[in-house]
Amino acid sequence: MTIEYSPVYTDSGFTSIDGRQYRNFTFSGSVRNPSAAAGSPDARSRHLMIGVPYENGVTAEVLFTSYKNISGELPPVPEVRAGIDRNAEYIYTRKNDVTPASEPLLFGEGGMVRGLNVQDIYLNAVGQDGRGIKLLTKMVVRFTFGNTTGNSSADDEFLSELVINYEMARKWIQRKPSSLKKGSAAGPSVLSTGKWYRFEAPEEGFYKITYNQLASYGISASTVDPRTIKIYNNGGYVLSENITVARPEDLQELAITVTGQDDGRFDQGDEIIFYGRGTGFWYYDSLTRIMKRNLNPYTAKNYFWITSGGSNGKRTGGKQSVAENTNNIVESTHAYDFWDEDKINLGQTGRFFVGDEFSQSMKTRVYQKKVEGIIPGTPAYYSYWFVNRSSESIGLTVEENGNVVRQSTVSGNGSDPYSIGRMDSVTGRTHYGTYPDERSVLRFTFGAGNSTSYGYLDFYEISWTRYLKAYNDVLLFYSPKMRGTTGPDSLYEYRLSNFSNTDITVYDITDHANVKLITNPAMQSGSEFRFRAWERPGAISRYYAICGQQYKTPVNSVEMPNQNIRGDLVGAELIMITSKELIESANRYKQYRESHPTDPLSVKVFTVDAIMNEFNSGSVDPSAIRDFVKYAYDNWQTAPKYVFIWGDGDYDYKNIEGKNKNMVPTFQSRDFLYEINSFSTDDFYVWVSGNDRRIDLGLGRIAAQNTKQANDYLDKVIAYERSTDKSSWKNLITLVADDHLTSQGIDLAGNTMQSERLSQSRIPPEYEQKKVYLINYPTVQTSLGRRKPEVNAAIINAINEGTVLLNYIGHGSPELWAHEQVFVRSSTIPQLKNSRYFFLTAATCDFGYYDKTEVQSATEDLLFLPGAGAIGVYTAVRPVFSEQNTILNDSL
Q1: Does the structural domain 2-175 have CATH classification 3.40.1180.10?
Q2: Which of 213, 218, 464, 485, by CA, is between 20 and 30 Å from 383?
Q3: 218 to each of 222, 268, 313, 564, how far by Cα in Å?
Q4: Whole-model pTM?
């Protein structure tokens, strides 16, 4: 494939920075050269995306280039810093040692979109050439693709608009074979038939269900065939965000023990015994080769499911103690414990909550844990996260039983308004000490010096080496960690002691779904139990010993209805995800959309609870929603094109703040301490074709918090789409641009210039335009600062008189636009009386911050304003920077 490219430039004139003159050039599709860095010339490129037959399946040869040279100098790429009032400050400083790549063409990232491998290409058009500016006038490039044998050509309307070589690339689109779409590799959920009860087993250990308890789990002891009793659970793990990592295809059946089942009756004295746990357990990570705590930010509940009937259930297998002798005697094990209480999300962003607060009035807190069986003279290891939310750096001292474990100075936020806190992250701090009464007494002291100094302990973990001695007749222990990942297995003899009697049972619980009973022990006498087992390098086995009747009892049993998301493979064009509280309004939308006279879409509505049940055993995890969307995309006969989220969502997955507004969970970033890097996005739910951040389906959310808001918005949609109004407002686009004035003086974001570029090169000529540029309106100095009341009036009038689209570029927040406050949520929105709804694109900071628990943003108010306001909004949910905002705005 050969392409020819000739950019058409717009000379934006000269810009003066610190007394030095720079020239700006732009063109349609202009983006910053990906190799440009802060301080280098602001070289510009044209971004293209091409389809390729497989990853790295293309080479490029530049056949011809021509340039023209213009006198002048490109401005430097700004360094973005946080200014006061949370506004970005752009520092333009030329660094002569930083230069963008000069090659005419650069390869960017590869990925996959809707089954097609894609490759980003950058054609470098504007660069600095000595003391002049080098402008590309023409480039001819030949792309050569690898083995182009592909499938029969497929049609995909989304890809046809995305890649420049769609007609060629159609045959490289990877689709599931038709047999899969008919259900050969996908099928009904186990929840589709039978009677089901769901319950919790919150602590790690073995649980018992007796004859008298069975009825509370929906099973009649007098009629059930106990051989058909089954329990399901998916382990309580956090689902991997890597879509290529294997995960359960449905609820996993557990291996359980049902005593007395062989006679086909469940009699008095018969019991169901199974291994259960919550979400806070320890496991061996084979990739990092360390023990990890299952840190689950989404839920504290790990649900189990019980049913009966049909085929026989899975039963506990045996693991026979090895008869062969060994010199590898194990009489100790590592042990683990932690403290982690979620209390506050410091910045109202990100997935993590921190725990106890430290302040000038509460500088010290003490935490106690039993370190059962700790072997004197062996070290303990400590890990913790501690956050300093103060502006100044503050000292932190950690002591164990009066002895210092670590002293440090935790950095402060300084003057950075985007910094929420600074983390002191410690992993595996070694400490040799004494532990009277086998008790850890851990003291944290935070040197808060004034009333504005605050620190927060997120969690701490402690591990130690203990004897293989049971306490309270239970013992959780692990195999020794063997070096390497390959090599011969090793035989170990485990010697357990300190049980109250000989009624000792030991299980291998390494695989939660396939626990095994240790049989034929080498010795079982008095308080001791010995067995031998082969262990593999690169793995750690987990064992659990129990003596007598130290069984736990399940809690919170509730009957659950049948459901079958996995088995319904007919599909639909639009997936609608909502909560049970909004199901009625969601079904109303479905009915309207499917019966639309000119553009009907097939719709399927699913509740979050139902999705979690089948894709994560009922426990909340955003990845379960993404896994469901991928399942539908891969298996439905009518593949989905769109995902529509119908309901609000926030960062409080566990409802710690008690607002209970997380109807459809958001995907929150891991970063929760820096506002620029912490974010919420629904895009995660449609990253389904490859392990990348490329969107594969159309996506939107209506963040309704109740049925009234949902129905008010739907009423607007119906009125908007059924309107026969042919007035001129439907052909009018309103452009609003901020000026260059900020609280720090003049910035160089160039909002007016950016808006003019849209006006001249992006808006089709058949549309009328109305421009409300702040630079053209007088400023009024008030006691509250600069104001431009004529702009406020112009925006309100433009909306009330009717405009099909309003585009704002400039500074903003969830409450207002511009430093002059030309749009204010509390005063502007009540003045809107427009029955002609407009679409808003707001290229500004966090105007759509919808995922706070207590308040709704101005974006939400515009959408849910009955009979007025906006029909749709495209805007940022967190602070953003001008360059990225401009690129995105230009691409709409």
Answers
A1: no
A2: 485
A3: 12, 17, 17, 20
A4: 0.93
